[in-house]
Amino acid sequence: MNPLADNPLETRSDAQRAVVDLFDPLETHFSPGRARMKPDARGAHFPDSAAELEGFSRPLWGLVPLAAGGDDAFDGWSSYRTGLANGVDPDHPEYWGEAPDYSQKHVEMAAIGLGLALAPEELWDPLEASDRENLVAWLSQINEASLHDCNWLFFRVVVNLGLRAVGADHDWDLTQETLDELESYYLEDGWYADGPAGERPSDYYIPWAMHFYGLVYAAVAGDDDPERAARFRERAAQFAAEHRHWFAADGAGLPYGRSLTYRFAQAAFWGGLAFADVDIEAYDLSWGEIKGLWFRNLRWWADQPIFTDGGVLSIGYRYPSLKVSESYNSPSSPYWGMKAFIPLALSQEHPFWRADERPLSETADLTVQEAPKMAICRDEEAGHHYALTAGQNSHYLEKYTKFAYSTQFGFSVRSRAPGIDGAGHDSSLALSADGSTYRSRLSVTDASVEGTTLRSRWEPWDDVTVETWLVPASPWHVRVHRLSTGRQLHSAEGGFPVDKTGDDQPDRHSHEEGEDGALVRYPAGTSGIRSLRGSREGTAITQDPNTNLVAPRTIVPTLTATHDPGTHWLVSGVTAATADRDAAWDRPPQLALEDDRFVVTDADGDELLRLPRSGSDR
Question: Where would I find the DUF2264 domain in this sequence (predicted)?
Fold first, then answer.
């Protein structure tokens, strides 16, 4: 059941109805005391008490703006207050419990803090005095505990915003110290790192966390802290000019990084700009464009099979799959996406709601972004929107270190299946010493952006070093690898993964496999990889099911080879196109050797990359 199936998602009232319709399937999963909610029996790495609190709190990210905006379509506030009072009562069997250092419960406190700040008439004013005391005591634990040095620090800020708004005890000095620490994560051009610079990646946590909470702070406390609020608004406007390139024309966001099961949280940043009245016009954006980005993303998600039979959001990305999730994803984690509905707190007279939706006025074919070390390609002829990346280090591995991430084709994670089938080798160069266990670029020792070329260095073994250059040349991109190895290696380099739907009908799919190339065609699209230097065999490899973010069954055109100890140059051209589009397979890039230099050109002979060839090579 899709709760949004009959909702056009075109107006403010449509969005208001969406919040209620998304909440309704959860109703039967609440505990008798209403303090806990658990849609199914799966768990996360933290205790059930925190996971069930997550189920209670996360819907508030949508319900609170709904109430703040004056909508009375949700009639469950009395039940929510009952759950809130029971959850913070140490004598009640559904008490949420203590929140020690680094507890997941601190995360879930933030939605309650937002409720106190924006909708006190629902979550504070009607409470008994004893319930208020319990609530303040429980929330105040966040001021005594250690939090992870990342966006988690904003949870303390939002909690104190809420306590301050209702005149309860709070620690404003600690809040300001925490904000100072968060601002130290700022990089440039609107970008933050999700933690100390150089230690944490730049990903969706920048728009839907670092900026989002900063905009909440600017809107709620901006009059008392105008200089900081101005910085948050200015940085968000700068970031908007960059982040718009992560979205395809149909509203789909670029699948990249962790926590993608939060799904339409991708739209939260666009709504946050409106909530904080950011001056977007200074960066050549209009409210019509922002509204279009917001609504198109919501509509794209509403069209995907992301719900269970009971209408509850599933774990996964474009379909239910635990294989692509993280250990902190509980059954209620996807409801973080309710943050997208923050503009419902605004009146219908706000410019965001009064504007007519518009497409983006500036959609560059190629956009290079320094902070995430990306080159974002928008290939209208191929119907393909993707990013090349130099890689960022994270223990979430292939969610940050593949060569490419595609809105249409997604990416795949590794599984426990042996051999290359389970190696998640799409958009990767996978290497194996035994022909069974593969290693790819799962961390980088050095990464840089040089013009439109992305360079990285990675060391899968102590005696193996790979230096990689990625060059955009839509509808192709070129990969150059300098592989130095002290051992014999097997390699498998994958192109973009393609949905295998249609493989039971011979007339709907085809493979071209042979020396130096592989091309696969399916109803979902075409994907190919060609070797431009060195002898490698082209083959099509089926991946372990449910490891890709956008399709449960995928196939990858792949180049395979064996390499003796020494230095090897591997050069490939990779292309892909969605259904009924041209992948330009017959017009690949070219490689030439000039004066001991490699020169890569596109099919028209325009130079893309010139590299010195040093040392012995094969």
Answer: 11-359, 370-582
Q: How far is CA 2 from the centre of its chain?
A: 22
- Pinpoint the residues of the chain covered by CATH 2.70.98.70: 366-612
Enter the tokens of residue 529.
């990889």
Q: How far apart are CA 540 and CA 543, in angstroms?
A: 10
Sign of the C-alpha dihedral computed for residues 5, 315, 428 and 545 taken in this order: negative
Q: What are phi and psi of 358, to 5 degrees?
A: -140, 150
Q: How far is CA 1 from CA 303, 305, 404, 565, in A?
A: 12, 9, 33, 56
Are 446 and 579 a contacting pair, CB within 8 Å?
no
Q: How far apart are CA 99 and CA 50, in angstroms?
A: 9
- Type of residue at 158: V
Whether a cis peptide bond, with omega within 30° of 0, leads into 100 is no
List every span in the chain annotated with CATH 1.50.10.20.
12-354
3-state secondary structure of 264: helix
CB atoms within 10 A of CB 452: 16
pLDDT per residue as tens digits for the range 197-216? 777 899 999 999 999 999 99
Closest CA to 405 of 389, 420, 391: 389
Is the domain 12-354 a CATH 1.10.1040.20 member?
A: no
Q: Please state whether beta strands 404-406 and 384-389 pair in parallel, antiparallel, or not at all (unpaired).
A: antiparallel
- Cα gap 213→176, rounded to integer Å: 14
Separation CA 609–CA 570 (nearest Å): 14
Return the ∠ at Cα 98 (arms to 96 and 104), rounded to 5°.
75
**In Å, how far from its chain's centre is CA 500?**
24
With a CB cutoff of 8 Å and minimum separation 6, the contacts of 357 are 10, 288, 291, 292, 295, 296
pLDDT digit string, tens, across residues 403-451: 999 999 999 999 989 999 999 999 999 999 998 999 999 889 999 999 9
Amino acid at 344: L
Instruction: State if pTM tops 0.90.
Output: yes
Q: How far apart are CA 154 and CA 63, in angstroms?
A: 20
As a whole number of Å, the CA-based R_g of the chain is 25
- Residue 235: which of 195, 193, 188 has the closest Cα? 188
Beta strand 566-578 with 510-514 is: unpaired
Instruction: Find, among 480, 488, 524, 477, the residue nearest to 503 by Cα.
Output: 524
Of 112, 78, 61, 111, the residue nearest 344 (C-alpha): 61
Most confident of 94-98, 361-365, 586-590: 94-98
Residues comprising the chain, all counted: 618
In the chain, DSSP finds a helix count (H) and a strand count (E) of 16, 21
Cβ–Cβ < 8 Å for 585, 528: yes
- pLDDT band for position 616 (50/70/90)? very low
